[in-house]
């Protein structure tokens, strides 16, 4: 099995290879930090949207199951979970 260095070891190796003229200016560092923060926010938003999509797919799957095979309790649970994810105030009335 190959030994893979940890993050701190990798960072040390990268720092040792860096040329002195390659140092980031304070402005570049701040710009980079702002870009990383924006990317982290975008990733978190993407995770939340993916969770909502998964919840919608669960509900659609439950609704599309033939009526004879459908488990109404599972459907209610899936709808409740979707409502919780979407932040809806109350339960959904199945009768429309």
Structural notes for this entry:
This protein is mainly alpha-helical and 96 residues long. The chain has a domain at 25-86. Helix content is 68%, strand content 0%. It has three helices and no strands. It has helices at 7-17, 26-64, 72-86. Helix 2 (26-64) runs antiparallel to helix 3. It is elongated, with a radius of gyration of 24 Å. The N and C termini lie far apart (59 Å). The model has no long low-confidence stretch (mean pLDDT 76).
Structural class: mainly alpha
Question: What is the end-to-end distance?
Answer: 59 Å
Per DSSP, what share of the residues sits in E-state strands of 2 or more residues? under 5%
**How much is the average pLDDT?**
76
What is the ordering of alpha helices and beta strands? HHH
Shape: elongated
Instruction: Assign a percent range to the helix content.
Output: 55-70%
The main sheet comes to: none
Annotation, overall tally of beta strands: 0
């Amino acid at each position: 099995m190959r030994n893979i260095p940890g993050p701190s070891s990798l960072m040390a190796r990268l720092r040792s290879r860096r040329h002195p003229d390659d140092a980031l200016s304070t402005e570049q560092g701040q710009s980079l930090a702002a870009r990383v923060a924006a990317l982290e926010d975008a990733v978190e938003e993407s995770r939340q949207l993916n969770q909502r999509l998964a919840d919608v797919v669960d509900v659609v799957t439950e609704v599309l199951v033939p009526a004879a095979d459908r488990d109404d309790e599972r459907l209610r649970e899936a709808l409740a979970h979707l409502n919780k994810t979407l932040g809806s105030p109350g339960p959904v009335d199945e009768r429309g």
